[in-house]
């Protein structure tokens, strides 16, 4: 599946296919954050969509006669149905972009975001994917639906409750549930740590106070009969980050995500990077406990690196699930180069555990670390020796096929309204590794400068 973004901010066009790790780099003001936030909003909207999957009268009758049915789905038909669903949804979402990105309509003139599908997108559905239907609070789960190896299997668990199950709504519920299985397969549940994340915890109370004040104004306007338009001062990503912090405050510290429970080394590695751990106090909210001290600090009192990685750390510890997508805008913010390398290795471990990662970055250290993880994946004796000597873990190593690398850069030619940018893919291979031309010229210029200073040439 490919996501196509056109005329989104400075981006003239971007064609993005998600890998286990997706990296977007490029100079400032080339549209990296625009693309990331627009894609996040699209993924979020996609998972809320539903449209009935067709079930024939004969199939529906068979379900109540035998208690189960198996429907063979045709990939080309699923592609057609899915394309129809998202044709209208894409047009609707494109009209909402000014709110998603919190920018003027002029900056998004002609903007569109869409997804393009192929039969291959549905071919990998060999793992069992489930859904269940509860008819009412008086009944337990009465229907189980799963899709596996080309078959949609629907099983009726409570055949004695025929009357509520044979209602006119049940057929629509089943159809929607089947559609949601396919949509959730295509569009991962996403979490974003936006570039504004560093200050969100510090100013959380002030933002909440402003929100409460605004709600009071709305109530007063309603009483007086005046209308008041809800402003969008923050992008969707920032708003969701604030909601996430409020959500984290209600989670027990000992509640671990499925990924953290199955891969505890990821939590250990993250704690080593920040030099401690985040804890949730029911009275004092999220705090940071340094590994070397028997105290806890407010996030405001903590270092800039602790604030910068707060949302990422809380997500990994308390929410991360297999099949998710973690989006981090500029993960290198406030990190020493050594920790930039370590966060790259942590992302690789997450990807290998089953959580996809999308980042935007200006860090050559992060890119070089991904490069090393690809080259070390080779089984040459020298690579094995380096792996052991430098302390790399097998679960951090990456195949070239796992990484999608894109560079945002100015498009060739003149364009009305000033320079426009495109997002271009860069190859990743065992021989060349991971390399972005975005950093090459700057590095070459610096090397040339120092050669001239030191050697006069």
Describe the model.
With 457 residues, the chain is an alpha/beta fold. It folds into three domains: 1-47 and 74-121 and 324-457, Rossmann fold (3-Layer(aba) Sandwich), CATH 3.40.50; 53-72 and 126-178, no CATH class; 198-322, no CATH class. 44% of the residues lie in helices and 21% in strands. The chain is built from 16 helices and 18 strands. It has helices spanning 32-46, 57-66, 75-101, 162-165, 168-186, 197-200, 204-224, 236-248, 258-262, 264-274, 304-308, 310-318, 337-353, 364-376, 381-389, 437-455, and strands at 2-8, 11-16, 21-26, 68-72, 112-116, 129-134, 141-148, 151-156, 190-193, 276-281, 285-290, 297-298, 325-329, 356-361, 403-410, 421-426, 428-429, 433-434. The strands form four sheets. It has a nine-stranded mixed beta sheet with strand order 5-1-2-16-15-3-14-13-9, with helices on both faces. Helix 13 links the parallel strand 13 and strand 14. Helix 10 (264-274) runs antiparallel to helix 13. The longest helix is centred in the first third of the chain and has 27 residues, at 75-101. The chain is globular, with a radius of gyration of 25 Å. The relative contact order is 0.14.
């Amino acid at each position: 599946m490919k996501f196509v973004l056109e005329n989104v901010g400075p981006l003239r066009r971007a064609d993005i296919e998600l890998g286990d790790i997706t990296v977007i780099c490029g100079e400032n003001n080339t549209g990296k954050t625009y693309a990331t936030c627009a894609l996040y909003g699209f993924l979020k909207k996609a998972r809320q969509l539903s449209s009935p999957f067709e079930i024939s009268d004969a199939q529906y009758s068979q379900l109540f006669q035998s208690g189960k049915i198996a429907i063979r789905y045709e990939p080309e038909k699923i592609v057609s149905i899915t394309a129809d669903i998202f044709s209208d949804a894409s047009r609707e979402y494109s009209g909402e972009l000014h709110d998603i990105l919190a920018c003027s309509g002029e900056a998004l003139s002609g903007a569109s975001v869409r997804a393009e599908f192929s039969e291959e997108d549905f071919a990998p559905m060999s793992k069992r994917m489930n859904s269940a239907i509860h008819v009412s609070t008086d009944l337990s789960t009465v229907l189980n639906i799963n899709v596996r190896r080309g078959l949609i299997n629907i099983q009726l668990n409570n055949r004695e409750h025929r009357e509520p199950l044979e209602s006119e709504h049940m057929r629509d519920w089943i159809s929607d549930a089947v559609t949601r299985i396919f949509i959730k397969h295509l569009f991962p549940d996403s979490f974003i740590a936006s570039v504004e994340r560093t200050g969100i915890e510090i100013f959380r109370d002030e933002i909440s106070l402003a929100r409460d004040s605004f709600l009071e104004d709305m109530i007063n306007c309603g009483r007086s009969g005046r209308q008041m338009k809800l402003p969008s001062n923050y992008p969707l990503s920032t708003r969701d980050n604030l909601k996430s912090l409020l959500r984290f405050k209600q989670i027990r510290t000992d509640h671990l995500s499925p990924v953290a429970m199955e891969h505890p080394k990821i939590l250990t590695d993250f704690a080593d990077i920040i030099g401690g751990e985040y804890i949730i106090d029911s009275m004092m909210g999220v705090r940071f406990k340094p590994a070397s001290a028997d105290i806890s600090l407010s996030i405001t009192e903590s270092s800039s690196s602790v604030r910068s990685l707060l949302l990422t750390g809380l997500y990994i510890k308390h929410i991360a699930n297999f099949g998710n997508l973690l989006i981090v805008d500029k993960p290198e913010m406030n990190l020493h180069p050594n920790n930039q390398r370590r966060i790259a290795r942590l992302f690789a471990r997450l990807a290998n555990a089953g959580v996809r990662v999308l980042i935007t970055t200006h860090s050559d250290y992060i890119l070089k670390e991904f490069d090393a993880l690809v080259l070390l994946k080779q089984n040459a004796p020298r690579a094995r020796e380096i792996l052991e000597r430098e302390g790399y873990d097998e679960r951090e190593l990456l195949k070239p096929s796992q990484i999608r690398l894109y560079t945002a850069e100015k498009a060739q030619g003149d364009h009305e309204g000033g320079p426009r940018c495109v997002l271009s893919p860069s190859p990743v291979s065992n021989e060349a590794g991971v390399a972005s031309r975005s950093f090459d010229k700057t590095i070459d210029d610096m090397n040339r400068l120092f050669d001239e200073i030191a050697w006069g040439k």
